[in-house]
Amino acid sequence: MAGSSLSFNLSNLRCNLAVLFCFICSCGVVMFSEADANYLTLDYYAKTCPKASEIIHSQMESAVSSDPRVGPRLLRMHFHDCFVQGCDGSVLLDDTETFKGEKTAGPNINSLHGFDVVDKIKSHLESECPGVVSCADLLALAAKDAVILAGGPYWDVPLGRKDSRSASLEKANTDIPLPNQGLITLISKFLAKGLSTTDMVALSGSHTIGVARCTSFRDRIYGDYQYTSKDGGELLRLKKMCPEKKNDENTTNLDHTTPTLFDNAYYGNLVKGEGLLNSDQELYSSIIGFQTVKLVKKYAEDSLIFFKHYSDSMVRMGNITNPHGGEVRNNCRVMN
Ligand code: HEM
Ligand SMILES: *[C@@H]1O[C@H](CO)[C@@H](O)[C@H](O)[C@H]1NC(C)=O
Ligand SMILES: *[C@@H]1O[C@H](CO)[C@@H](O)[C@H](O)[C@H]1NC(C)=O
Asked: What UniProt keywords are attached to this protein's entry (predicted)?
């Protein structure tokens, strides 16, 4: 235990040094940053499509009111977009005979939904201002609306992302964190994207809404759920809907306390040992989770601090850019 926490701290330090080093090296090019195609700004569409965020908000409002599953689905889609090549709409590209996208990657297949809603929003944007608003920005704005519509915090979304002319099935399989992974791997995957441990704990709070399939948490309920939680009733319910060898696709709420409300109850569940995914419970129960335990307790006690950290972390996650730039797709599913 001491050994692993020590090596973790060392790699953390190395990482910080690497960041500092890059920072020093990049000072020479800072003056070009305004010309950088990837530089995000709040007023990016002020002249070219002033109604963009309004259109997305009203479309999200009606989509969520007719199907509440849409909000969590689009929030997760933005996350899976940003963790592969940066927030560049790569997750939205359809497979063709000659092109392999990210939709069949392990974390996405049979799991990401709502592409039809993205198409519908995009068609409204196209009729208002053709060829202007990127699919990647659409996802960033829709994710913010999903959170607000569920009662969560508001934040201003920096804009100006470009849509990729590529996708990476391989990176979708390697870079997106998995529910059965342990704390060190989870932290490393966020660090690799320039996000901190605090970002990871705050962003995991997204699991205050939405659902997971049996296949995502079966190992946990037949494994250590019984040791972390005293709520035998909840465990029994989960085992009943997810027998050991069937019903892979049955779903249940990630936050069984307040499933559709964006609040801090997710963290209260973790303190009670009732995190649904192994990756959720790791934040509180991992033997090396000193820093994450403190954050979980703080967020469980103070929803305003959680909301503040969550909004800041969403802006940082949304700021992961694809250095190759790109285009504004006419149709989110295909390159122009
Ligand atoms: C910490 C690492 C994370 C892991 C291992 C993880 C894993 C998962 C898994 C396995 C599911 C259930 C998928 C299924 O069974 O079909 C899920 C759902 C979800 N995740 Fe995460 N996630 C993580 C972080 C995040 C982040 C950073 C966000 C957003 C910023 C997010 C947003 C969501 C949402 C909203 C759902 C519900 C989706 C729905 O209802 O359709 N997750 N996550
Ligand atoms: C789980 O899946 C089975 C088979 O598809 C279905 O009959 C059952 O109603 C589902 N249960 C829940 C709780 O979703
Ligand atoms: C976003 O990224 C740019 C460079 O890519 C950086 O200058 C800026 O500080 C970042 N903003 C946030 C909020 O992380």
From this structure: Calcium, Disulfide bond, Glycoprotein, Heme, Hydrogen peroxide, Iron, Metal-binding, Oxidoreductase, Peroxidase, Pyrrolidone carboxylic acid, Secreted, Signal
Domain with 195 in it: what CATH number?
Answer: 1.10.420.10
H helix intervals, the chain: 2-26, 52-66, 70-82, 115-128, 135-149, 169-175, 183-191, 197-204, 214-221, 225-228, 232-241, 265-271, 278-285, 290-301, 303-318
Nearest CA to ligand 3 atom 14: 316
Residues 196 and 312 in one domain: yes
For 52-75, write each residue's pLDDT tens digit. 999 999 999 999 999 999 999 999
Parent domain of 123:
52-176
Nearest CA to ligand 1 atom 23: 204
Last residue of a domain, one of 146, 176, 206: 176
Q: What does R_g of the chain's alpha carbons equal in angstroms?
A: 20
Q: What is the pTM of this model?
A: 0.91
Query: Which ligand is nearest the CA of 314, by number?
Result: 1
What is the Å distance from ligand 3's center to 316 Cα? Answer: 7
Instruction: State whether 153 and 276 are in the same domain.
Output: no
Flag whether pLDDT at 100 surpasses 60.
yes
Tell whether 53 is in a known binding site: no
Which residues are designated catalytic?
80
Q: 4 or 238, which is more confident? A: 238
